[in-house]
Structure formats: structure tokens, C-alpha cells
């Protein structure tokens, strides 16, 4: 594989590990745990993996183990640092015994079911150290939830002598990891399942998980691009840039980019929901900021829009909830796409039909049809940035007719998502991911199953990071999915009383009016620590 000079230099980077993982470790166990909600139901569904303690690794004598093999799966959307989780796991299992082997299942959980795999040899591993992407084995969104899939999985795991399977994924994939761990434990198959917290969206976090990996690099990459746009915007002074940012549900990415770049406007879906805002309220809010800047002669600006916004507008949320129930019925599932739309229209409530009919056709179709395998609306396909700017233009035109000064409103549109998901990991993600992977090998060596690999205290230097494991059941509650109540990991949305949002809220009026842009520039790998090794502003504010 041909490599750039940066790639060659970066390949030689040795990621840092927490001090506790540098030598042999033992697991220090805390108290028994409870799930975050619906304790009785979750306990009944996970009798073998419920209530286990949180553990922390401390120096101690590691038991000698027979050689063993490990399997790994990359699941869901790409996130910077995935290859480093694998290299950390690889180095971790080899350090326990050089004869241990690591197998990667190809293209996500589907690779386990279809017996599609490869051995990750030292030569292959070295090609991918400190690189972005998931291309070493590929990723996929197959949902692992059927007994038939688990049984097909155990066949190949046994054939390859695999003692433990590591699933790298977001909340949905780790929910599946937990279900699989429980199934294999109940059947006494002797295969451990360990999860790893991945997603650029940043919504797999809680008291034990500080952040999901990839969030740091993705936000820094988007912030570089937003900063570049802001420089352009402030140079030409003729466009309003509407920038949609990935983050299927939560607005963590938009908020972090706002903290880094100080745009004129950043919408936060969770606030829109909390304030019960309509689409028109959102449009009026943006149009007012445009008019206020125009009054000062500034016919330009930047608006950050979280990808999931549409789903958080209460009226649309209600509509989607009913659409999900209708689409989950066998009658709807047997229909073709256009028949499905008619079916939906005939079965939704009058109130929801009004909302449905008020949306532009393309948005309405998207809401009514495509779901990913986990039942999520594919918000990355909805062009919210264009929808909002068109509606703002109409509102400004209306105000102009009423005699209000609105200035000129020229627009540009951007969607940043795929640009950041495979970026070369920042030092933070390179170290964090390597530590998560290495730590997973210690969870395996200590016989754990149904745990997620966790590394905490990451705003401190890496040597002081704390490594251990959290039972996945601890993060679960019951939620409706595809029309049925299911045990799932609770998603972490932006907390409106949390420090990152509060800081943003205290500044946004000033940022809206003035041109207070910050231009973060590209991720740096070498140089002063305040340039190269800073965690996200979100994490820094949360840990103040
Ligand atoms: P994960 O939750 O699987 O990490 O994926 C996150 C994400 O990047 C979202 O931000 C986005 O909505 C989605 O994936 C897009 O996925 P796809 O490209 O498969 O449609």
C-alpha cells in the first residue's frame, strides 16, 4: 500500500497506555450494580449478566493462561480510532501469549453470522496502526438479535478456537453485545463477549463512560472545516452558510463544534424539544438573527444544524413515533414503497396527518419510509440545511413586505459527516482507543463477559487514566423499538443543565450578533501539548 509521508511518520507513533495497564493486572471489584431503568425487567431478561460489579484494573499478578484466540467485530458507522482499538487488543492478547491469535469478522456482525473472517497477522496490523477508517476488516449494520444468528456465530467461534468476541459499536451494537453475552452465558458455551464504546455522535456516555471514541477527532475535523468556512464567510461577507452536522439523535457534535468555532447560530435539538418549539419557531429564531446582523450591515453568517433536529421537533417526533408503529405492522411491511405511503396516510391520526402534509414531500417520504436495521430514521439523508434556509428566505421575504429591514440573504449549504468519520485519529483518540483495546484483552484474561471496556479520567495525562470494565446491563432500560418494548442502552442526549450547554447558552447572544469566529485549524500530531493533546471542550467543561 502506497503511503504519504504523514502516514509513514504516524505509523511509528506509539500510543500511550494508562500506567495501570503497563504491567500485570488484577480486577478490583466494586459493589453489585443496577440497570439505569426498568430494573426488574432487565434483571429478568439478563439473569446471567445482571448486577455484576464495576471493575477497575490495578497492578497484581496475572494468572497464567493457556493460549487462546479472540474475535473482533466493527459495527455501525465508522469512527476515528477503530484501528487503534484493534491494535491495542492485538498487542494486549499477544502480550499475554505470543501464540494467541486475533480474527476479524468481515463487514460487521454479518461476518460472524456468514462465517466471513480473516486472521489479523502482525504484518496486516502494522499497516493500520494510528490510521483512520474501519477498512482493515470493514463494518456493517446487521443487527444481531436472533437465536439463529447466535447459533451460527458459535459454530465459527468454536471452529476458530475463539474464547472471546469483542464488539466495537455504539449503543445499538453494544446492546446486541449484551444480548449475545447473556445468551452464550445461559447456554454455557464458554465464549465471552466484550463491548467497546464507539460513535462519533458522542451519545454513548454515562457516569462510567466519559466519551465514545471518535467524537474527539470527528469534532476537530468538522471544526477545522467550519473554521475555514467562517474565514471565507468573513472574507467575502456575502453568504449565510447553513451547515448540517452528523449526530443521528443527540446534538453533542453540533455543540462541541460551536464551542470550538463560535458560529453565529447553533441549534440544539434537545433544547428545541424542551421548549416545545415548532419548525416555524426555529425558522423565526434564525431569521431574526439574520435580520439583526443585516441591521448592522453584516449580510453573512454561519448556522450549525444537528442532523437529528427534525426528530426532536415535538410535533414531528409524535408523527415519527406513530409512523414507526404503523410501519412495524405486518400489513405495512408487505407493501411496496408507494403503497406504504398511502397505507401510512390512511392510518395516522388527523393531527399527525396535518403535520405530515405540511412537510416538503422529500422530507415526508424520508420520515415515512427508510429505516436502518435498528429501526432509526436515516436522518443523514434529510437535507435539513436546505429545508431551513428555504424557510428562512420565505420568512424574510414576508417581513420585507411588512416593511422590516432584512438585508440580503445569499446562502450556501454544507453537510459534514462522512468527512470526519474516517479521519486519522487525534492523539487523544489514538491513545484512548489503543487503551480501550488493550484493556479489553485484560477483561478477557480476567474471564469477564457482558462488560464494556472503559477508560476514565481522560482529561488527565494518559498515564493517570483509569482502566476497567462496566457491566453493559448497568446502562440499560426498556424502550420502544420497531413497535415493541426492548432492552436497550440509554442514549446520552445533551443535558441542558450540563456545563457544556450552559457555557454555550451564556455566549450565544454575543456570538449571534458579533462576528466572534474562532478558526481552530487542522488536528496537529506533534508540537506543544496544548495544541496536540487537548480533549474536546465538552469533556473539559464536564470535568471542570
Ligand atoms: P453510529 O451510531 O453507528 O456510530 O453511526 C453514527 C453515524 O455517523 C450518524 O452520525 C449518522 O446518522 C449515521 O452514522 C449514518 O450512517 P450511514 O452512513 O450508515 O447511513
Brief account:
The chain is an alpha/beta fold and 544 residues long. Helix content is 44%, strand content 15%.
CATH C-level label of the largest domain: Alpha Beta
Q: List the bound ligands.
A: 1,6-di-O-phosphono-beta-D-fructofuranose
> Rough shape?
globular
- Please report the number of helical segments: 23
Structural class assignment: alpha/beta
Unreliable stretches covering 5 or more consecutive residues: none
Overall pLDDT: 94
Number of self-contained structural domains? 2
Major sheet attributes: 9 strands, mixed
Proportion of residues in extended strands: 15-25%
Q: Alpha-carbon distance between the termini?
A: 44 Å
Radius of gyration: 24 Å
CATH architectural type of the largest domain = 3-Layer(aba) Sandwich
Strand order of the largest sheet: 1-2-13-12-7-6-3-4-5
Number of strands: 15
Q: What name does the CATH topology of the largest domain carry?
A: Rossmann fold
Helical amount among residues, as a percent range?
40-55%
Amino acid at each position: 500500500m502506497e503511503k504519504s509521508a504523514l502516514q509513514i511518520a504516524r505509523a511509528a507513533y506509539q500510543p500511550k497506555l494508562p500506567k495501570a495497564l503497563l504491567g500485570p493486572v488484577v480486577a478490583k471489584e466494586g459493589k453489585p450494580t443496577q440497570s439505569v431503568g426498568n430494573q426488574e425487567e432487565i434483571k429478568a431478561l439478563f439473569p446471567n449478566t445482571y448486577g455484576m460489579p464495576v471493575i477497575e484494573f490495578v497492578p497484581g499478578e496475572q494468572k497464567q493462561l493457556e493460549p487462546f484466540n479472540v474475535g473482533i467485530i466493527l459495527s455501525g458507522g465508522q469512527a476515528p480510532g477503530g484501528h487503534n482499538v484493534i491494535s491495542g487488543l492485538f498487542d494486549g492478547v499477544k502480550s499475554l501469549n505470543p501464540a494467541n491469535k486475533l480474527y476479524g469478522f468481515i463487514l460487521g456482525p454479518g461476518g460472524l453470522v456468514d462465517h466471513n473472517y480473516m486472521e489479523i497477522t502482525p504484518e496486516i496490523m502494522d499497516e493500520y496502526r494510528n490510521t483512520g477508517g474501519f477498512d482493515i476488516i470493514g463494518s456493517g449494520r446487521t443487527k444481531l438479535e436472533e437465536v439463529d444468528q447466535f447459533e451460527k456465530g458459535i459454530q465459527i467461534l468454536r471452529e476458530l478456537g475463539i474464547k472471546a468476541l469483542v464488539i466495537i459499536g455504539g449503543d445499538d451494537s453494544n446492546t446486541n453485545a449484551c444480548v449475545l453475552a447473556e445468551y452464550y452465558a445461559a447456554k454455557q458455551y464458554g465464549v465471552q463477549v466484550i463491548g467497546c464504546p464507539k460513535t462519533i455522535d458522542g451519545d454513548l456516555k454515562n457516569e462510567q463512560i466519559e466519551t465514545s471514541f471518535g467524537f474527539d477527532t470527528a469534532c476537530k475535523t468538522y471544526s477545522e472545516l467550519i473554521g475555514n468556512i467562517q474565514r471565507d464567510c468573513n472574507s467575502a461577507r456575502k453568504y449565510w452558510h447553513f451547515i448540517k452536522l452528523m449526530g443521528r439523535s443527540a446534538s453533542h457534535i453540533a455543540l462541541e463544534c460551536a464551542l470550538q468555532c463560535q458560529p453565529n447560530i447553533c441549534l440544539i435539538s434537545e433544547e428545541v424539544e424542551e421548549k416545545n418549539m415548532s419548525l416555524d419557531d426555529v425558522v423565526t429564531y434564525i431569521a431574526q438573527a439574520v435580520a439583526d446582523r443585516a441591521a448592522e450591515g453584516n449580510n453573512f453568517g454561519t448556522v450549525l444544524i444537528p442532523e437529528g433536529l427534525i426528530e426532536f421537533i415535538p410535533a414531528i417526533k409524535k408523527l415519527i413515533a406513530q409512523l414507526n408503529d404503523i410501519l412495524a405492522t405486518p400489513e405495512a411491511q408487505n407493501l411496496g414503497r408507494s403503497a406504504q405511503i398511502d397505507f401510512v396516510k390512511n392510518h395516522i391520526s388527523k393531527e399527525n396527518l396535518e403535520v405530515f402534509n405540511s412537510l416538503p414531500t422529500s422530507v415526508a417520504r424520508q420520515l415515512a419510509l427508510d429505516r436502518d436495521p435498528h429501526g432509526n430514521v436515516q436522518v443523514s439523508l434529510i437535507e435539513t440545511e436546505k429545508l431551513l434556509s428555504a424557510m428562512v428566505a420565505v420568512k424574510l421575504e414576508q417581513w420585507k413586505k411588512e416593511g422590516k429591514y432584512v438585508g440580503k440573504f445569499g446562502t450556501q449549504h454544507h453537510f459534514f459527516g462522512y468527512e470526519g468519520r474516517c479521519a486519522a485519529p487525534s492523539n487523544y483518540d489514538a491513545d484512548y482507543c489503543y487503551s480501550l483495546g488493550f484493556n479489553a484483552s485484560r477483561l478477557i484474561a480476567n474471564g469477564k463477559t457482558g462488560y464494556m471496556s472503559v477508560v476514565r479520567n481522560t482529561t488527565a495525562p494518559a498515564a493517570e487514566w483509569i482502566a476497567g470494565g462496566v457491566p453493559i446491563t448497568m446502562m440499560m432500560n426498556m424502550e420502544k423499538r420497531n413497535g415493541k418494548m426492548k432492552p436497550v442502552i440509554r442514549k446520552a442526549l445533551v443535558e441542558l443543565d450540563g456545563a457544556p450547554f450552559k457555557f454555550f447558552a451564556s455566549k450565544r447572544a454575543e456570538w449571534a450578533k458579533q462576528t466572534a469566529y474562532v478558526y481552530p485549524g487542522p488536528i496537529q500530531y506533534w508540537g506543544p501539548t496544548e495544541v496536540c493533546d487537548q480533549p474536546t471542550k465538552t469533556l473539559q467543561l464536564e470535568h471542570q
